[in-house]
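Table S2 (text version). Query chain:
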Amino acid sequence: MKPAKVQHNEKGFTLLEMIITMSVFMFVIIIAAQTFNTVVTESAKISKSEESNIEGVIGLEVMRHDIEQTGFGLPWGILPGHTVTYSEADTTNWSADTTNYAKTNDSAASPPVPRALVGFDAFADAGSNLLGDFIGVKGSTVGRSKAAQLWNYIPYQNFSTASGRESRPVAWPSNNLVAGDKVIAIRNNFNNPDDDHLLVDSAGTFAFNYNTNGSIHDDFLPIDSLQTHMIYGIERSTALRMPFNRTDFFVKIPDATTTGDTSMPAFCAPGTGVLYRATVNHAGALPGKYNYIPLLDCVANMQVVLGWSFNSGSEKLQDAIHAYSSMPNKTDYSVSTLSATAAALPATTASDIQGWLQDPKGIREHLKIIKIYLLVQEGKKDTRYTYPASSIVVGDQANGELTLTQQYTFTAEQRNYRWKLYKIIVRPKNLVSNQR
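Corresponding structure-token output:
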């Protein structure tokens, strides 16, 4: 019997096959690693972009809220025969342009009735630190104090047995002003236009300490059944500099002298600044000076466009807009506190707009829309990315009658960043033009 034949298994990998397989495997790993790295990098960019978007939404919501409150709690006049004086914003807030900045104050007017909105078209600051337009809003609710968010009213003969007074503030179930809050009184008398929306004072003093126990001076109380005094909180236990709060918005490059910041965030593109909410201090160590609150970083430009109602007796808003635009010759517009372009419009003239901007009543009855445009960096610098355009329009596009544009041109380095244009549209509900 022959022995069984041994079967040899000659299947296997040669050295060359192993080398090729390992090379392919390593190649796949390298591609996968590069893809993963790209995904992580892009994810970080998107994450940073989303952070910027969230910061933008929060900051711009604060801005929108304040602008919407434009004119709330402002008097329309002073009591006949009375003299009221006050100081407003300190002109050294913009030390390089005190002349133009002084025009945003109404305390020197006679009578000193405040305008709901003031501003400028990029007036000069040392080192050209202002990037775009400047706008300020006035009203009781745009302050930082808790008292600024509260109000009350005093009807005639709201009798209090405890105090023995015929008139006193009403008591809300909650959110009442507290004793000692600095408040103002504005007289409402809808039966007599000459006695309506007037700032009430006592021997020139326009503010008093809020209380409900009868300590309010008689001069601040209504004197007949046709009058109701509206009480607006301004500050909490702080002497008032002016009978309202004021908050200014602008984009500025930080500096240690004014804003207190030492530098821009490192990730911001060159030529950008910070959007600030600057509240004017009433009293204390720095009366009239700004209290800077940063809202949004890496902002390249801000433009403001105003929409006007030219028919004060109806809802009609004609297609006519007034814009801030970069005009090199400020002397041409020295009559305007907004130092802005006022083009001739079908329904009115440039001089009409300039007059309204100077007049509290003109702003109250004709200003309809406030638009804010902000050009903001999105994410960090990316040397592999080039922004697709060399410039961008910040503001309204041509509307057939007026070209309301601010052409912003990017530098070569700025084009390595992504940009987003934010737009806020506000119809201030406290202006008469939006109440009809």
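Notes on Table S2: Helices lie at 15-68, 98-102, 350-358, 360-366. The two ends are 120 Å apart (CA to CA).
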